[in-house]
Amino acid sequence: MTKETLILSIESSCDETSVSVIADGQRILSNTVLSQIDSHKRFGGVVPEVASRHHVEGIIPTIDTALEDAQVTMEDINAVAVTEGPGLIGALLVGINAAKALAFAYDKPLIPVHHIAGHIYANHLEEPLTFPQMALIVSGGHTELIYMKDHLSFEVVGETRDDAVGEAYDKVARTIGLSYPGGPKVDQLAAEGEDTYDFPRVWLEKDSFDFSFSGLKSAVINKQHNLKQKGETVNAANIATSFQNSVVEVLVGKAIQACETYDVKHLIVAGGVASNRGLRREMTRACEEHDIQLSIPSAKLCTDNAAMIGAAAHYLYLNGARADMALNGRSSIDIEEVGE
Ligand code: KG4
Ligand code: ZN
């Protein structure tokens, strides 16, 4: 029997310190996630400096726990992978410096990974990716439709022109008094309300796969101001349902249209907002109707974690992608550069 390839991966691009050990890009031996949400809650969002400090405190214990949970030592590991970007620069640098130290001390190859490639490969941990495929990325920082004709081949066919969808969720949540991160709470509230406010669906130009959510966010805020001025009460559950219906209809409509235009029969959804129940339900229904295979990772793999970074790193490792000790964090990187 050939020995499995073990990759130790590190993710620290935002507010989760996470370390994982992945066998052959698919089997999770450990996936330790240390969340900082409680620290950022009181500020209503992620404070970069606070995030960096928590990563510094958490990174070494998280590495130790991930190795312990996987019941392996650094000697057993074939390569060390780390999120290079995009993300908060100070937060990224903590993970990158830890990865460089491990790679140097144990003489292991160092593999830089694009955070969004990680979100896409989260699917691969539960169901093998098949090609060609379309990926809809919906997170706190990204909203993109990406066409993949093979492993590590990323063509961005649509992206947001303003707010990311998770960002719009978090901002709308704040207007109805829900604490950070508001996305999951809006999702929960949306199940209790009705679509009474009739918010716009922003389709942009015909045939465009781009998105725009800032107009919708303003419509939600204006509606609440108008109601208050007229002395009428704002029904928060109805705001949540009306907002979510608008977002979901556009995400589903554009994703299906992109699959048809690119003649793709496999759609994956990735990123924190992929755990949204309304989106999962409607996307499932639409894919059944259009005979498209749909993959969405389970909720714990949708939000930031190192297992997804390890899954993408496996293919980069096989492809010969290597970084040296000059590796630096990059707050923004074009995903189309990956695999070149
Ligand atoms: O992918 P992720 O963990 O971090 C980024 O890379 O951005 O995504 C976090 C985002 C937050 O904006 C959060 O509010 C949103 O995902 N989110 C949700 C849900 N769960 C997380 N948004 C809507 N519905 C959800 N169920
Ligand atoms: Zn993410």
Automatic annotation (TrEMBL):
One Pfam family hit: TsaD
A single MF term (Gene Ontology): tRNA N(6)-L-threonylcarbamoyladenine synthase activity
UniProt GO cellular component terms: cytoplasm
Cofactor notes: Binds 1 Fe(2+) ion per subunit.
Stored InterPro entries: ATPase_NBD, Gcp-like_dom, KAE1/TsaD, Peptidase_M22_CS, TsaD
Cofactor dependence: Fe(2+)
Residues in Gcp-like domain copies: 28-310
Location of this chain's protein in the cell: Cytoplasm
Highest taxon, organism lineage: Bacteria
Any one of the GO BP annotations: tRNA threonylcarbamoyladenosine modification
Catalysis performed (reactions): L-threonylcarbamoyladenylate + adenosine(37) in tRNA = N(6)-L-threonylcarbamoyladenosine(37) in tRNA + AMP + H(+)
Organism: Staphylococcus argensis
Enzyme type, top EC level: transferase
Stated family: Belongs to the KAE1 / TsaD family.
Residues that, per the record, bind Fe cation: 115, 119, 304
Residues that, per the record, bind substrate: 137-141, 170, 183, 187, 276
UniProt EC number: 2.3.1.234
Protein name: tRNA N6-adenosine threonylcarbamoyltransferase
Task performed by this protein: Required for the formation of a threonylcarbamoyl group on adenosine at position 37 (t(6)A37) in tRNAs that read codons beginning with adenine. Is involved in the transfer of the threonylcarbamoyl moiety of threonylcarbamoyl-AMP (TC-AMP) to the N6 group of A37, together with TsaE and TsaB. TsaD likely plays a direct catalytic role in this reaction.
